[in-house]
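JOB MANIFEST
job_type = single_chain_structure
chain_count = 1
residues = 97
[input]
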Amino acid sequence: REGRLYLASVMDLYTREIVGWRLEKHMETSLVLGALQGAYAAKRPKEGLLYHSDRGSQYTSCEYAKQLKEYGMESSMSRRGNCYDNACIESWHSILK
């Protein structure tokens, strides 16, 4: 069966390791939440970790902000329309494509 799949990936920018990911048939908040939860479960980072993302509606949702707060993470978002702020993960996704 053909169709589109969406991948959300979480990269540790120090090691460039993908520490969490989720693959879904939709691009809703649960997609990025699943990737975040997987990354948190795998690494259990210290409080105050800076979590960088783009400004997609999934990352700006109240549900996502609540999860970041529960994990003690701080949100950082790229500038509007500037893909270079997320160059590492954009590069990773371009390799997959």
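[summary]
The chain has a mean pLDDT of 89.
The helical segments are 29-43, 62-70, 87-96.
exit_status = 0
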